[in-house]
Amino acid sequence: MPHRNTVFCDILKLVPWAAFDKLVKNHGSDELVRSFTTKRQLLALLFGQLSGACSLRDIEASMRSHRGRLYHTGSLAPARSTFADANRSRSPEVFSGLFMHMLGMMTRGFRRKMDDAVRLIDSTGLHLAGVGAHWARFSADVCGAKAHVVYDPDLGCPIYHMITEATVNDITAAKAMPIEAGATYVFDLGYYDYAWWAELDDADCRIVTRFKKNTPLHSATSMPVELAMGIVSDSIGFLPGRQAKNRKNPMSGAVREIVVTMETGGTLRILSNDLDAPAKEIADLYKRRWQIELFFRVMKQTLKINHFIGRSENAVRIQIAVALIAFLLLRMLTKMSQEKQTLLETTRLVRANLMHRKDFTRLRQLHRPPPLDPRQIMLNWGST
Predict the structure, then answer these.
(1) Contact of 346 with 326, CB cutoff 8 Å
(2) Cβ atoms 234, 211 nearer than 8 A
(3) Does residue 336 sit within a domain?
(4) Distance between CA 335 and CA 109 in Å, rounded?
(5) Is there a domain that residue 306 lies in?
(6) What pTM did the predictor assign?
(7) Is the pLDDT of residue 113 over 70?
(8) Which of 129-133, 222-226, 263-267, 315-319 has the highest mean pLDDT?
C-alpha cells in the first residue's frame, strides 16, 4: 500500500518555510534555543488552531497522542512550561512577518486598479483574564485587548492587523495604519474624525461611512433619486466649519449624504466624498462592511481566538498572527479542494481528519457513504 501523508503534513507544505527561516534568522528568534525551536513553536500553534484546541494542555495531550504521525512533520509535543515561555518571550514579528509574506503569495496573481480596491476597517474586542493580562487592564476587574483589522472583501482576507489594549480608541489605531492612495475606505462611527478623513481625501481615497445623528449638512443641494432602489434622498453639501473647542474643520470640501431605507424600516445616513458615483453604488459599498463582521465571527467561533493559551502581550500577538496564518491556509485549501465548499466546511473537515492519512483536497468526498447496491436495498426492505 503506498504511503500517504496526514492531512496536517500536507497542509504544512503550503507554508513558505524558506521565508520563515529567514525571518527567524533576522529576528534572532532561535538564539540560545536547544530543542523547542521557533519552527516547532509554529507547528504546535498551527496544530492547536487547526485541531480546535483551547489550551496548552489540550495541545500537549493531543500532540502526544499522535506522536508517531507527527514525527514526519518535524514537530513534537511541547512541555507546557517550555511552550508558555516561548509564547511569552519570542518576537511576534516572526509570525506576523510570515503572515504578510503568505498574503503576498496569495495576491501575487491578483491584478486590479487601486481605484477598485475596497478596504473595510473595524476592530473587535478580545477578553483576557488571569495572570499576565495586566498589560491590557481595562478597569479594576476587567482586562481586554482589541484587534484592529483592514479587510479586503474582494480577496476575502485581512491585509493589515494591529493589537492594542482595549482602552485604545479605534481612530487612534486607524491613524497609525498605512493609507493606500486611491482606495475606497469603508468604516463605521468609531472612526469619526474629520482630520483623518481629510488625510484620506488628500490621498484621493473614497470615503464611505455614516453620519452621526447630530451632524448637519450645510448648504445642501438635493439630487434626483430612484425610490425603487431604496434611496430616500441624495444631497451634496458641507460639514460644519467648526469642531469642538472652536477648531477649524480640515474636511472643508463638499461631501454627500445618501439616506437609504433599512430592512428594519428605519433610515440610514451615509456619508461619502464621492460626488459622482451612483447613489446605489455608495449604498452597496457600505453594505459590504458586513463582510468584516463575518470575518471576526469566523476568527472567534471557528479559529477560537476568544480562547487564549497565553495572556501576556507577546502570547496574544503571536496567537492572533498564527490564527491569521491558519485562516490563509484554510482559504488556500478551500480553493484547492476538488469540490465546492465553504471555508467553514473546510475547517470542519480539516479538524475531523487532521491526523488521518487522506487526500486533503478530497475530504468531503471521502466522507460520503458508498452508493448502496439496489439488491441490498430490496433485501433490507424485505427483512423489515
Answers:
(1) no
(2) no
(3) yes
(4) 14
(5) no
(6) 0.84
(7) no
(8) 315-319
- Of 183, 159, 21, 46, residue with least CA distance to 103: 159
Burial of 48 (0-12, 13-18, 19+ CB in 10 A): buried
Question: What's the total number of domains in the chain?
Answer: 1
Q: What is the edge-to-edge ordering of all strands in the sheet holding 184-186?
A: 157-165, 143-152, 118-128, 184-186, 206-210, 267-272, 255-261, 231-238, 218-223
Dist CA 143 CA 28 (whole Å): 31
Do the beta carbons of residue 6 and residue 355 sit within 8 Å? yes
pLDDT confidence of residue 140: 60
Q: Give the Cα separation of 128 and 270 in Å (integer).
A: 35
User: What single-letter amino acid sits at 311?
Assistant: R
- For residue 93, the enclosing domain spans 7-98+311-367
In a domain, 169, yes or no: no
